[in-house]
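Run folding on both entries below.
>entry_1
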Amino acid sequence: FTHQADMLQSIQRNLKPNGTVFVWEEIAAKPNRKHKGCRKPMLTDESLRQLLAENGFQFADRITIEHSENERSYVYLFRLK
């Protein structure tokens, strides 16, 4: 999500009516954490939902993906508002 708003607006324009966006992301439990690999700021659950809502999407569901005992990521489903 380098250019978040631009990317989401492009997705919104190209998505079919009632389309679904899937976002698979490691989510920070606390603000100001960085990804291990790229060192870019991680999104929190709240900040991801807010970002998508501000760009015309409605939260639909979240699925947890367990990688190991201490690592997990989530697949979020959002639909056009």
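>entry_2
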Amino acid sequence: TGDYSGPSVTDTQLLGVLCALMTGRAVTPPHSTRRGALRDLARAHRVDRLAARAIRTRGEDLDAWFGDSGDAPGTERASAVLDAVRGRELQRVVDTLASIDGVAPIVFKGAALAYSHYRDPWLRPRIDTDILVSPSFARSALTALESLGYERMISTSGTLVMSQASLSRTDDFGVEHTLDVHWRIANWHVIAVVLSHDEIAGRAVPLPALGPRARAAADSDALLIACLHRAAHHWDSNELLWIYDIHLIAERLSYTDWRAF
């Protein structure tokens, strides 16, 4: 699955074990000879934190599922602390962008879901934070971020090719913060025109975990974006993390949300 050449029957079975574990269905630990493979598969699909949380929620020992889990509690604490540092920085970024008339920032994709749909944001690993801004005020947004110490990464400047810019900065703790500022939801034009910033902003909802000015895409828009992102950028990848994002959004949709979707 994903970057694999193709799953074997055993891999398919282990994927089924992970899915059942993450969604709270009845499932038993794999044979002792397959526990390491289950752990490695969970890491490859970036759902090892979710699976570990599910195992502990069941009141079971992590080693019974993953074999030698090493210093898993210490790793999880480190992930939670790092996420808290990044969350404080993200709130500063959102507050700055929201204070500029016309920018109307919307946190979307993985970062937004981490704070709106996951029990704890550190359970949803992510490399960067995606923020959608008004196309007419994209330059203002980038200038404001540069004033906060962010540097723009090298990429093509062609506006017909790229509809986003990546920026990063390293804070006093040595933690790197990476942002993807979008003025369209995707680079592919056929995908980008499906939903505009104005449409998403008009239905956006509060994201209180990132402060009083933070907003995220409404669930019906978030589901469409998650599906389009998986198709447009990841060639219909079967990575469980992206599929689990879709699962979490979908299970919370009301009848009205489904109609809107």
